Amino acid sequence: MFRFLVISFLAFASAEVIVDGPCPEVKALESFKFPEFQGTWYEIAKFPNVGEDGNKGKCSTAEYTVNGDKGTVRNSQVVNGVKSYVDGELTLVGPGRVMITYKFEGFTKNSVLTVVDTDYNNYAIGYSCKFLEKDNKHQVFSWILSRNKSLGDSQAKVNAFLDNFPAIDKSNYVYNDFSENTCKFTSSRAITSIRRKN
């Protein structure tokens, strides 16, 4: 997924999803079971963001390890034959809300992943929002995740949920590519710094 939440605070002018007004009140999954969320998730679709190189990042995954209300995540993706990854620290800050902390050279970045729906074994839908106070707008980020490289039978459940969740416009999703050729890489690197918005 994800350099994924690093990231939600950066700009990608040609693709970012910007909506008028402040961030809406979004209901998280109240019955969220953090330990059951651990393991590997494949990023089936995302709202484009610069942290995943816009639309370039492919074969994106997130590997969660959970211990109580804490944990770690490794987000990875492949771009042009290079696999990049970033490690983050997790803190459960409320039902269905996970703070992700990334430490880079010279600064730390926090963002909150709101899990709005999941069955733990097949799919999950994540949401994040950044208020752009100066312009009185908000930037929306969302991800569709799966335990497999495709949603399969879970696609209908995901569509039904999104059809009744106005904070997420599913027409903004860009779908990932997990084909064998796309996922090949010849080198890997850790992400230790990112470009910050001026």
From TrEMBL:
<protein>
    <submittedName>
        <fullName>Bilin-binding protein</fullName>
    </submittedName>
</protein>
<feature type="domain" description="Lipocalin/cytosolic fatty-acid binding">
    <location>
        <begin position="38"/>
        <end position="178"/>
    </location>
</feature>
<keyword id="KW-1015">Disulfide bond</keyword>
<dbReference type="GO" id="GO:0005737">
    <property type="term" value="C:cytoplasm"/>
</dbReference>
<dbReference type="GO" id="GO:0031409">
    <property type="term" value="F:pigment binding"/>
</dbReference>
<dbReference type="InterPro" id="IPR000566">
    <property type="entry name" value="Lipocln_cytosolic_FA-bd_dom"/>
</dbReference>
<dbReference type="InterPro" id="IPR022271">
    <property type="entry name" value="Lipocalin_ApoD"/>
</dbReference>
<dbReference type="GO" id="GO:0000302">
    <property type="term" value="P:response to reactive oxygen species"/>
</dbReference>
<dbReference type="Pfam" id="PF00061">
    <property type="entry name" value="Lipocalin"/>
</dbReference>
<dbReference type="GO" id="GO:0006629">
    <property type="term" value="P:lipid metabolic process"/>
</dbReference>
<keyword id="KW-0732">Signal</keyword>
<feature type="signal peptide">
    <location>
        <begin position="1"/>
        <end position="15"/>
    </location>
</feature>
<comment type="similarity">
    <text>Belongs to the calycin superfamily. Lipocalin family.</text>
</comment>
<dbReference type="InterPro" id="IPR003057">
    <property type="entry name" value="Invtbrt_color"/>
</dbReference>
<dbReference type="InterPro" id="IPR012674">
    <property type="entry name" value="Calycin"/>
</dbReference>
